[in-house]
Amino acid sequence: MLQRFFAALRAHYGVTVFFLYLGAFGIAFVGTFTLPLIAIFMVLLSIFLLVPAVLLGDAIGALSRKTTRPYLRRGVCPRCREQQGPAWEPPVYRCAFCQAAFDPSGDPHEADESVTPTAPNLTANDAS
Ligand SMILES: [Zn+2]
Description:
The chain has one domain. Helices cover 64% and strands 3% of the residues. Strands 1-2 form a two-stranded antiparallel sheet. Bound molecules: zinc ion. Zinc ion binds next to loops.
């Protein structure tokens, strides 16, 4: 329950902050013509709120990882809650049912980190 909440919060945090900033831009743009003091205040506020926004994102990520790791240890997929077979092991925990992949830290596994199969073949051909 808590793991699903933090995973969803983490997945949508960046887009939420982006649209909050976009809305604030709209208010500041209108404020430029009506009350310039509001626009100046919002520009300063946006700069000083950037660091807390990033720190909050990091905290959400840490909570998401912390709530995901117990599922990985128990051999249960954090996304679909299916019990996994013997193939469930590091370095990448890949679910046999929903194909979700997780790093041992609890992060969702990024597919682009893996080496493409064509790259080693090219280097092997150059060496021979
Ligand atoms: Zn799964």
